[in-house]
Amino acid sequence: MFGSTGSSFGGTSSFGTFGSTSTTTNSLGLGNTDNPMKDVEVQSPPDDTVSALKFSPKADFLIGSSWANDVRVWSLKSKDTRLWSPPQTTLKGILSCTYVRISTVSTQYTAFKMCHALFLCLPFYQHDKPVKTCQWIQAPNYSCLMTGSWDNTVKFWDTRQSNPMMVLQIPERVYCADVVYPMAIVGTAQRGIICYQLENQPSEVKRLESPLKYQNRCVSIFRDPKKNNQPVGFALGSVEGRVAIQFIEPQNPKDNFTFKCHRSNGTGANVQDIYAVNDIAFHPVHFCSLATVGSDGKFSFWDRDARTKLKVRAQKYIHCNKLFASVCSKGHEFYNPQVKPKIFLRNCAEELKPRKK
């Protein structure tokens, strides 16, 4: 997995004393410098590839999980960094993270919960195979952690109990998932998409086949301001350098469309280099604005309604309302202990404004 890994929006515009700017020579093969935009560099990055970054929805913190088998929390207003490593020494890597108080998932088939205040950790919640995704669900009448695994199950957990509240059997392995209450979307192997409603209790609404021709890689739900900001559809990314915009109940068939991204001209005539779309994130205020990150080591900003590109940058990752976090690394399979991943923060408030109609 070369270049970017994941994305999410949140955060503030205050950098505090978080880090410094950097213009050092890029040893990752992504241009002449690893920080061409002179963004703020996050201090104390993980030793191996970052698998996910997420901003806290209620506080000025950034959390990151990694293949170095640790989870880190950075304060956006100070130089404080908290590090947690699972007690098991046989962990193969932590694939995702989310805020419960804090939850993470790993390839060791176990999710972990972490007390936000004390940063204590306890192993909990078992799957039979690696856990690929975790999302927190905050409903009016319940709250739980949703985990998706390669054991063909989606499980819902009350964090006070060790047994799941509910187990949903699905046809294939979970590759990606997203939750925006009251909707959950799960992308599986063999290009499957399963839509759930979360009111009262989770239940399946619809199954779809991906409009993209190749493997699902990432999914992100979008809202509609004309429908009281309710979730109405999702963007799906795949390994083919393409994104699909899909409404659950389209008013017009033309509302659903796909577009190419993270592609470049190859060395031969009529040849394109095609890169996986590693993550997609929608802006929490401008619902038509989204960002994609790819294995080409670039991120792009898009206006979904205008179907146009807003920005393209030679960096890596996404996040936030006003802040944009980016990760630069070659991926776990190209791990080099001498070259650590780099995480950058950028004020993107102006760049993510949708185009005027």
Automatic annotation (TrEMBL):
Superkingdom of origin organism: Eukaryota
UniProt cross-references to InterPro entries, sorted A to Z: WD40/YVTN_repeat-like_dom_sf, WD40_repeat_CS, WD40_repeat_dom_sf, WD40_rpt
PROSITE patterns: WD_REPEATS_1, WD_REPEATS_2
One of the Pfam families matching this protein, by short name: WD40
Keyword field: Repeat, WD repeat
Gene3D superfamilies: YVTN repeat-like/Quinoprotein amine dehydrogenase (2.130.10.10)
Stretch list, region Disordered: 26-45
UniProt WD repeat ranges: 124-167
Protein name: Mitotic checkpoint protein and poly(A)+ RNA export protein
Organism: Porites evermanni
